[in-house]
Amino acid sequence: MKTSRSFRNLFYGSLLLTVIGLTGPQMTFGQTEKFDIAEFTPPKGWERAPRDGAVVFKDVNKTTGKFCILTIYASSPGSGNSAKDFADQWAELVVDKFKAQPGPKTESQASDGWQATVGGTQIETGGLQAVAVLSVMSGFGKTVSLLAVFNDESYIPIIDAFGKGLKLDKIASPSMAVPATSAEFLDFDPFPDKPHFQPQQPLLGRLKKTITLADIAGKWQVGGANVTSYFSSSSGNYSSTDTTFFGEWYTIRPNGAFDSSFQGRTGNHTVRESDNGTITLSGGTVNFKFNHKAAMRYQFVAYMVDAKGGAVLTLIHIGDDAPFDGEGLRANCGHAHGFVSCLTGESWMRLPVQGR
Question: For 273-300, how does the pLDDT look when each residue is reduced to its tens digit (9 = 90+)?
Fold first, then answer.
């Protein structure tokens, strides 16, 4: 079920009040698009620039110097407190990026399960004075942010009209991006049956071609175990058994920041560790930078989601080595259990959204 939300007089609060009666430029819009849980109709003729975890629309007049940049960010898990959601998003998207002050004056309004909170401030970007206004919608366990940066009030009616046409999907997973078209997914099986190997099982979901930070937001776990039995080389009698197991848990946020914990045991020795850091995506690799231990570099192999927001992320640790080519991946990977796994890789599991 979708809900069509009119965010008129929420997008810019008191800023809109200063331009009541303003006759803006002709507002023409293109075809409806879908990104993550948001459906919208962008201004016609504006430049579209997708990036990790967001989609950006720009209009720049090189003659007059007027510009407007609209950014829609992928949904992320909400805190259950709209004021906290706004403060967190403001700190990340406005304070950190534009060196703005925290705690702006805000306006909010609730409707149909969503709480919209809006705040704005003057900023400087690229040596130019501008205004940044952030609108954060909280509800249904999710939060969605829209940021407008502009330097001329004639853009306000266009952005206001854009907000009026915005629709949010209530039931989509907060960390599961809903694609606009099937172009984001593979339309073939990259790991078909191989002679003399265990037959493949049908994949339990579709595989995305690439991933964004928004895709991998959530709580993940990975683990393994090994039991080794020892026998006497002289008598052949059983001697002992050594059991080794480990588990790692990661909580990844849409901006790439993460917290991690590790627990492992071998023999009678137990190790427990915790750390945090940031993740970056680059050229098919997933890079973990820890604050207290060495960085880890993985090759992205596959990403598959289920209807409840659970997911399987398949990675191969490559360190400083070159990534596997296609033949190498096909030799190492398959889906004998319905999800992609690799002989030399790791299959990370994201926990589904509770209550679904």
Answer: 899 999 999 989 999 999 999 999 999 9
Tokens of 327: 């033949």
Tell me the pLDDT band of 27, cut-offs 50, 70 and 90. Answer: very low
Number of Cβ within a 10 Å radius of residue 38: 21
Distances (CA, A) of 70 to 46, 207, 208, 259: 10, 29, 26, 30
**Those residues with Cβ within 8 angstroms of residue 187's Cβ, 6 or more apart along the chain or in another chain:** none
Query: In three state form, how does the secondary structure of 96-115 look?
Result: HHHCCCCCCCEEEEEECCEE
Alpha-carbon torsion 75, 80, 86, 90, what sign? negative
* CATH code given to domain 2-169: 3.40.1000.10
What does pTM read for this prediction?
A: 0.47
Reading the block at residue 197, the tokens are: 């190997």
Both tokens assigned to 236: 């052949």
- Domain ranges across the chain: 2-169, 182-350
What's the CATH fold of domain 182-350? Lipocalin (2.40.128)
> Can you tell me which residue has the tokens 């609060």?
13
Number of Cβ atoms within 10 Å of the Cβ of 310: 19
| 215-236 tens-digit pLDDT | 898 889 886 545 455 555 666 6
Ordered alpha helix ranges (H), the chain: 13-17, 82-90, 96-98, 156-164, 326-332
Measure the CA–CA gap between 356 and 308, rounded to whole angstroms: 6
Same fold, 2-169 and 182-350: no
How far is the C-alpha of 327 from the C-alpha of 113, rounded, in Å?
49
- Which residue, 129, 123, 139, 134, is CA-closest to 163? 134
| Digit-coded pLDDT (tens) for 287-339 | 999 999 999 999 999 998 765 667 899 999 999 999 999 889 988 899 888 88
One-letter amino acid at 144 equals V
Residue 178, Cα to own-chain centre: how many angstroms? 11
Residue 355 vs residues 66, 144, 168, 351: alpha-carbon distances, Å: 47, 20, 20, 12
Give 71's pLDDT tier (boundaries 50, 70, 90): very high
